[in-house]
Amino acid sequence: MPTETEIKIAPLPMGAASGAAVSFPKDADRNARFKARFPKARWSSQTGSWLITGKTAAQRAALWAEEEAARGALEAKMRLRAEIDRAWHEADPAVRAAKEERRRRREAEEAAAEEKRQAELDSRRYKPDDAMIERIVEAHKGRIGSAYTVDPDILRAFLRRGIAPGSSTGAGPDSEHFGAGLTVTYLGDGRMLVVSKYPPIRGKNGRWQDIEVSRRETSAEADLMEMMLSNLARREFRPRSGFGLPNASRR
Predict the structure, then answer these.
(1) Which of 10, 33, 107, 129 could disulfide-link 21, Cβ–Cβ 3.0 to 4.6 Å?
(2) Whether pTM exceeds 0.70
(3) The predicted structure's pLDDT at residue 27
C-alpha cells in the first residue's frame, strides 16, 4: 500500500483561481478514490500530476492524503493480524493433520480419475492376438535378443498393450495409387482412418503442399494394424538410430 510520503502536493498560483498539483505512484485503487473525491481534477501529462483548482485545493488534498495514510496503516495492521492468525492456525496439530488428510484425499481422487481414464482408454485400444504379436517379433528378430538392448519379452510386453486411439503412423506405399503413401490413424473402438497422399510438391505460391489422393474411414484392417503396430514398436525402441542399440555389456 502506498504511504503518505508518496503523495506529493504542490500549491500552484493560478491567479484568481489558485490550486494544487497532486502526484502519487500508479495505483488503480488509489487513483479511483482520488477521482471520486476530486471529480473535476484534470491530469497533466507535462507535470505527471493531477491538477485541482480552488483556493482550498492544497488543504483539501492534504486532508485526502491523511485519510490515505490512515487507510494504509489500517490495511497494514489487518494484513499483519491475518498473517499472525494464519501462523497460529497452521501451527495447530489438528489443522496440520486435516490439511494433510485433504492432500491425501485429493491425490487419491486424482489417482482414481487417472485410473478410470486409463481404463477407458484401454477399453478402446486395438488389441492384437498372439499370432500377430509373434509375427511382429519374428520380423524384428535381427534387432532384438541378447546382443541388443531390446529383448523379445520387452517387445512382446509393448505389443500386448495394443494401439491407443489417436496413434498414427505411415503404412507403406499405396498399391492403388503409384507413388502415393498410406498414413493410418487408429480412431478407437475398432475404427481406423486411412489417408493416401503423394509426397509434398512445391506449389505456385512457393509453399510445399501435400496432395491427398483418398481418405476413408473403415473398420480396422488386420494387415494395416499389424504394420502400424510394428512401426510403433520401431519408433518406441529407437534411442538414437535403428530399432535397438547394441548392448555393450554383452559384447
Answers:
(1) 10
(2) no
(3) 86
- CA distance linking residue 149 with residue 250, whole number of Å: 10
Indicate the residue type of 97. A
Amino acid at 84: I
Distances (CA, A) of 99 to 82, 90, 113: 19, 9, 21
Cell of 18: 489558485
Cα–Cα distance measured from residue 186 to residue 165, given in angstroms and rounded to the nearest whole number: 5
The one-letter code for the residue type at 220 is A
In the chain, which stretches have pLDDT less than 70? Answer: 1-5, 14-17, 145-148, 239-251
* pLDDT at position 35: 92
- 3-class secondary structure per residue, 62-117: HHHHHHHHHHHHHHHHHHHHHHHHHHHHHHCHHHHHHHHHHHHHHHHHHHHHHHHH
CA-based angle 37:38:41, to the nearest 5?
Answer: 160
| Grid cell listed for 221 | 484392417
CA distance linking residue 58 with residue 22, whole number of Å: 9
| pLDDT at residue 65 in the model | 92
Q: In the block, which residue shows the cell 541388443?
A: 148
